[in-house]
TrEMBL record:
It catalyses: tRNA(Pro) + L-proline + ATP = L-prolyl-tRNA(Pro) + AMP + diphosphate. Residues 38-468 form the Aminoacyl-transfer RNA synthetases class-II family profile domain. Homodimer. It comes from the Bacteria. Consists of three domains: the N-terminal catalytic domain, the editing domain and the C-terminal anticodon-binding domain. PANTHER family: MITOCHONDRIAL RIBOSOME PROTEIN L39/PROLYL-TRNA LIGASE FAMILY MEMBER, PROLINE--TRNA LIGASE. This is Proline--tRNA ligase. GO terms for molecular function: aminoacyl-tRNA deacylase activity; ATP binding; catalytic activity, acting on a protein; proline-tRNA ligase activity; transferase activity. CDD domains: ProRS-INS, ProRS_anticodon_short, ProRS_core_prok. Its EC number is 6.1.1.15. Catalyzes the attachment of proline to tRNA(Pro) in a two-step reaction: proline is first activated by ATP to form Pro-AMP and then transferred to the acceptor end of tRNA(Pro). As ProRS can inadvertently accommodate and process non-cognate amino acids such as alanine and cysteine, to avoid such errors it has two additional distinct editing activities against alanine. One activity is designated as 'pretransfer' editing and involves the tRNA(Pro)-independent hydrolysis of activated Ala-AMP. The gene is proS. InterPro entries: aa-tRNA-synt_IIb, aa-tRNA-synth_II, aa-tRNA-synth_II/BPL/LPL, Anticodon-bd, Anticodon-bd_dom_sf, Pro-tRNA-ligase_IIa, Pro-tRNA-synth_IIa_bac-type, Pro-tRNA-Synthase_IIa_type1. One of its GO terms (cellular component) is cytosol.
Length: 580
């Protein structure tokens, strides 16, 4: 591609809404432009990078026998109603009504559509196992779209679905897909971890997220420093032996006493008022879990994990109560609610408060708290669960060794769905024994546009993007320092034609611009290899460098193929090398 007529609108000033590096660089380097909140146009460079990631995905999916197809983005409401997700999915599902009054959704995911298809097309175990996949635009009405294409309302996703006759067959398919995802993200140049995760509204049992490690990631990853345990913090288990407060276990039991605590409502204020540490405060947080009001208790220095709370109560949705709802249910403002005298409210507790003695808790009366609380004595019948977030001081739940926290961006997710959707949509087939049984499913997603952004987030410096070889829009950035110099121009033109004939993707800067502008744009755009045709062209040589290393080397033209081949082999790239 010749830059003289290429649509690569680079920016010198970054728009104020760009808060993270990938968003800033995608705008600055002319990869994308915003159309509306959470909606982006991918310009030619951005689309080429996206298609390169798609090519990697296709190669690895095809290698494990998955078959590509394309399903509609417009889904009839009836399918989602059959699965129960029309109501369950919530406001993120974009819904619309056609001219005939029929309800539809824009596809956020395709479990219902693909299950309905397979239910109609496969009736016998002889046709299974089958795995299908697609690369398609998805729609989700994000509450807070931000960070550019990392959290947008329209995005490209690879979603795959497997269909097996046995659970053992699902395990084998899941393992192959897990390995394929590992290969995909390695080829994309990402540093990532596969972690245990919660299935959310997709459902199912075993599930893993593939997290690109990144400081701006919205997810926290807990990983053991010794064994292989890794989990999203939403899923990370707290070891039962380490979850009970022991700091007051030797204290002499005291009687409950109501204390006047005017305007004392935060944990920090309570610790000062009672001259105690936060592990003696019973924090009470009010939720609505499905259709019931729930009071969740946790030690004052910990935080409730809403997913754990929801699962403990076998609920489908959990949301904190608003201040007016708390006043109606408890008769006081937040900060004074507690576990006593709350008829009609379900009270549950995290294991961390089990050992509290001489503790403090809200009295469900404005400006009053109880002291002298003994959890075992004063909370009879209250069930205890693992309801809190793990902290960095907690040990690994598998081996007991220390853990560390890192931030990550979810780029992929694999699920064992089982029969959740095949039961709901009547996807069954005849078994080898002649009986009818539900088909056993798995589903596997990759956020393709998000992967492109994650690559940029991990691969950049103060000058611009540093593309890994396989994801790069172009392999070579060819620069003619002076288009007015006949030798330079003719050398550059000949190189451009020769490299393209050998199958190399080349971005050729043939603009009549100052060298400094060209070099600055080359750093910003970040193609893996730069070939500069300058004064040494008269001697039959060009200057070569890699964007990652920024080491400039004069290479005779007759040795250029060997130089490029060495770079590709060093990076273990799938880019063509046979012609070089």
């Amino acid at each position: 591609m010749r830059m003289k007529h290429a649509l690569i609108p680079t920016l010198r000033e970054v728009p104020g809404e760009a808060k993270v590096d990938s968003h800033r660089l995608m705008l600055k380097a002319g990869l994308a432009r915003q159309l509306a909140a959470g909606v982006y146009t991918l310009l030619p460079l951005g689309l080429k990078a996206l298609r390169n990631v798609q090519s990697i995905i296709r190669e690895e999916m095809d290698a494990i026998g998955a078959q590509e197809m394309l399903m509609p983005a417009l889904h009839p409401a009836e399918l989602w109603q059959q699965s129960g997700r029309w109501e369950q999915y919530g406001p993120e599902l974009m819904r619309l009504t056609d001219r005939n009054g029929s309800s539809f959704a824009l596809g956020a995911t395709h479990e219902e559509v693909v299950t309905s298809l397979i239910a109609n097309e496969i009736k016998s175990y002889r046709k299974l196992p089958v795995t299908v996949y697609q690369l398609q635009t998805k729609f989700r009405d994000e509450r807070r779209p931000r960070f550019g294409v990392l959290r947008s309302r329209e995005f490209v996703m690879k979603d795959a679905y497997s269909f097996d006759t046995t659970w053992e067959g699902l395990d084998e398919t899941y393992a192959r897909m897990y390995d394929a995802y590992t290969a995909i993200f390695n080829r994309c140049g990402l540093t990532f971890r596969a972690v245990e995760a919660d299935p959310g509204t997709i459902g199912g049992t075993d599930t893993h997220e593939f997290m690109a490690l990144c400081a701006i990631g919205e997810d926290t990853i807990v990983s053991c420093t010794s064994c292989g345990y890794a989990a999203n913090i939403e899923k990370a288990e707290v070891s039962p032996s380490k979850s009970i407060a022991v700091s007051t276990s030797g204290a002499v039991p005291k009687l409950l006493e109501k204390m006047h605590t005017p305007d004392v409502r935060t944990i920090e204020q309570l610790t000062r008022f009672f001259d105690c540490s936060a592990d003696r405060i019973v924090k009470a947080v009010a939720y609505r879990v499905d259709d019931r009001v729930v009071l969740a208790l946790v030690r004052g220095d910990y935080a409730i994990n809403e997913l754990k709370l929801k699962h403990a109560l076998k609920g489908s949705d959990a949301a904190m109560l608003e201040e007016d709802e708390i006043a109606e249910a408890f008769g006081c403002k937040p900060g004074f609610i507690g576990p006593f005298g709350v008829p009609g409210v379900t009270v549950v507790a995290d294991r961390s408060i089990r050992g509290i003695r001489d503790g403090a808790a809200g009295a469900n009366e404005q400006d009053f708290h109880w002291t002298g609380l003994d959890a075992e004595r004063d909370l009879p019948g209250v069930p205890f669960f693992d309801l809190r977030n793990m902290t960095e001081s907690d040990p690994c739940p598998k081996c007991g060794e220390p853990v560390r926290f890192t931030e990550g961006i979810e780029v992929g997710h694999v699920f064992k769905l089982g029969t959740k959707y095949s039961d709901a949509l009547n996807a069954a087939c005849l078994t080898e024994q002649g009986s009818l049984a539900p088909i056993i499913m798995g589903c596997y997603g990759i956020g393709v546009t998000r992967t492109v952004a994650a690559i940029i987030e991990q691969h950049h410096d103060e000058h611009g993007i540093i593309w890994p070889l396989e994801a790069a829009p172009y392999f070579i950035h060819l620069i003619c320092v002076s288009m007015n110099d006949e030798v330079q121009r003719e050398t550059a033109e000949a190189l451009y034609a020769s490299l393209r004939a050998k199958g190399c993707e080349v971005l050729y800067d043939d603009r009549d611009e100052r060298p400094g502008v060209k070099f600055k744009d080359a750093d910003l755009l970040g193609m893996p290899v730069r070939i500069t045709v300058g004064k040494k062209a008269a001697e039959g040589a060009v200057e070569c460098s890699t964007r990652a290393e920024r080491v400039h080397t004069d290479v005779p033209l007759q040795e250029l193929d060997a130089y490029l081949s060495a770079i590709m082999k060093r990076n273990d790239s799938h880019i063509r090398t046979d012609s070089l």
